[in-house]
């Protein structure tokens, strides 16, 4: 039955069957995280980086009632134009499949689709988490539950401090999700290399990351892992300055009564408006860097 919904390109199918490295990529970052047409260049370049590292890119989306793994140029264009493209997290998935609506996949949904296709490593920008004030609103991204459930290693630049990073890390600990830092003791805060909160373990290499994932799944532990990869130093932004912009964005979301799935895209757009090109350039670079590291982990994982 599942095969009726899953649509994987021949290239990716073959790579998975032959134990060749494949890296999943999400589409919410395209449709709801970046402007058109800049996101088109990004989508192409991130896939190119994965290929240069010796892995096959697998951008995921929900189109025509199918879970798409690997998108054509035309399909990437649809996701980037984002006309009538919704944001699909776990709870939305069945509705989009049954109605044929177009959907961009979040971290949670990309993990689900990657796992169904046999892909073990996924690169994104930042994960969702516990929102500021989440102890009252209960606004906790479904990404965190997914990390506890679905066996995919997620390479990200940590989490944006639009979130309550401390509570996000507490939640991940409760749910039994390893939080591994790539050559860092400090959990990165997306635009900034440090959040002030620690990781569980400082990874020395992609090979070590691959071995930890393998050990986890070999003994039958469910769920994935966060592999937190700091933004390259040359693109890092000033922490205090970012804090100010983010606090302003959060306050404005509250004033305007933005809720639910709209809050993350709203905050991202607001930050981009306030910090202009600099934060966008940083966003691109950290995502490229994550794609690079994820590909190296995927390559190492296939050797084990
Ligand atoms: N954080 C970012 N950029 C993003 C997202 C989060 O810095 O594009 C997207 C990802 O797709 C993530 C989703 O999975 O937002 C989380 O949304 P929510 O908080 O509604 O679960
Ligand atoms: Mn939410």
Concise account of the structure shown:
The protein has helices at 10-17, 28-31, 38-52, 73-81, 93-99, 107-116, 134-137, 142-149, 165-174, 206-218, 239-255, 263-303, and strands at residues 6-8, 22-25, 56-63, 66-69, 85-88, 102-105, 121-123, 153-156, 179-182, 201-203, 225-228. By secondary structure, it is an alpha/beta fold.
Please tell me about this protein's structure.
With 304 residues, the chain is α/β, with parallel strands linked by helices. Helices cover 48% and strands 15% of the residues. The protein is built from twelve helices and eleven strands. Strands 1, 2, 3, 4, 5, 6, 7, 8, 9, 10 and 11 form an eleven-stranded mixed β-sheet that branches. Helix 3 runs parallel beside helix 12, helix 6 runs parallel beside helix 8 and helix 10 crosses helix 12. It is globular. The relative contact order is 0.14. The site of manganese (II) ion has 2 residues, from loops.
